[in-house]
Every structure is written in structure tokens, then in C-alpha cells.
Amino acid sequence: MFTVTYAQLNGWLTAFLWPFTRVLALIAVAPIVGHRSVPMRVKIGLGAFITLIVAPTLGAMPQTTVFSAEGVWILVNQFMIGIALGFVMQMVFAVVTAAGDLMGLGMGLGFASFFDPQANSSTPALSSWLNMMAMLAFLAFDGHLQMIAALMQTFTSVPISANVLSANGYRLLANWGATVFNAGLLLSLPVVVALLITNLSLGILNRAAPQIGIFQIGFAITMLVGMLLIMAMTPNLIPYFARLIDGGLEQMGRVAAALKPVP
Hints:
Blueprint: H1 6-29, H2 40-54, H3 69-107, E1 113-116, E2 121-124, H4 125-140, H5 143-157, H6 167-176, H7 179-208, H8 214-259
Antiparallel strand pairs: 1-2
Helix pairs in contact: 1-2, 1-3, 3-4, 3-7, 3-8, 4-8, 5-8, 6-8, 7-8
């Protein structure tokens, strides 16, 4: 007769549940796989599948029960690690969205928006287009696979334990948020500067020849200039997205190493 002891059952639960929590937390926040259009069953199934593959390679788990106070604290630690790592990659796409907002505002396309189910709000059309391009580049460069591989490496740099995570990791994560403004402004800078020069030129022309009616043609001119510049930038967008994705993957490793508890 097949019998299972409490110690064996607890060992199986700890070997699966704690890694599963870290993996599922990343999947819930990460780009593409964490999108609201992906069914919850698919997310849970993907997390369970990845955990079943990686769990046998993690070695011995802490000697504690799953439902004890220490076991629940370990569960919280794994959840926080997964959320932090997924947020790092989500910030890469926030860079693209911020750049689209800046360019669309200068072109006068701030009113043209679509409903984004991911953000649960209206998003400017230009931001939606750039975000779609970034997602396609993310999939083309196997960014989703590299992201999962980076997550698997964190089990080595940050082993499963009940120790309190280092605050350096959260500080590094907060500093990573500054890239939204830096990289987003850098991406939109050619269009923003060109539109600024265009608006200044139209203002000078309006003062020199008021009879032209700048307010009637200004919107069309700024939109035309913006569209032409975006067309000129398009060949360089994919390499820029590739650098952003590589930077996000490297930042995942740095954040994980900084979260490692100090002995």
C-alpha cells in the first residue's frame, strides 16, 4: 500500500510552492506574459510548468513547514523577488510609452487615444504603436525566454531562505525608474527638438505675416514634420529597443544580487 508521511508531503510542497511563487509573481507582472489578455489559467499553467522543470535543480530547501510563520515569510520573500524582477522588465516598456507620449504631445496627437487593457486607461495612439513595435522586437529577440532564464539564475544568486531581503535591491529598483525619463526623453528627443524649432518658426512667421493664418496650417505642419521624423527614425528603433531589452535583463541580475540577504 502506498503511504505518504507528513514529512514527505511537506518536502514536496516546499520544493514546489516556494519556487512557484517567485515564478508566478514574475509572470503576473512581466511584459507580454503578464498582459491582461492572457487568461489566468494560462499564467498559472505556465508558472507550474516552469517550476516543475526547475524545482529538481534547486537543491535542499529550508527545513521548515510551509504553513508555519517562517514558511509564510519565505513565501512573502519569493513573491517580493518575483514582483521586483518583473517590474524591472515592465519599466523597459514604460520607456517606450513615455517617449510616445512626449512625441504625440508635440505633434498634437494627444487627443488621439485608444483604450489600453494593460494600463486600464486611454493611451495615446503613438504610444500604442511604439509599444506594439517594442513587444514585437521583444518576441523577435527571444526576450521572453531570456527573461525566464534570468529568473532561473536568481535562484542561485538569491537562494530560497527566510532571511530578510537587503534594502539595496529596492534602492536599485527605484533608481532604475529614472531610466523611464532618461531613455524616454532620449528616444523622443529628435522629434521633440524638431517640433520645438517648427513651432518657434511658425510663431515668428505669424508675427511677420499675420494674414497667413498660422493657426489653420500649424497643426498640419507639425503633424507632417513629426510623421516624417518618425519615418526617418524607424530603421533605428529596433536596435534601440534591443539595447533597452538587454539593459533590462542585465538589471534583473543586478537587482537580484542586491536583494541577497546580508549574512
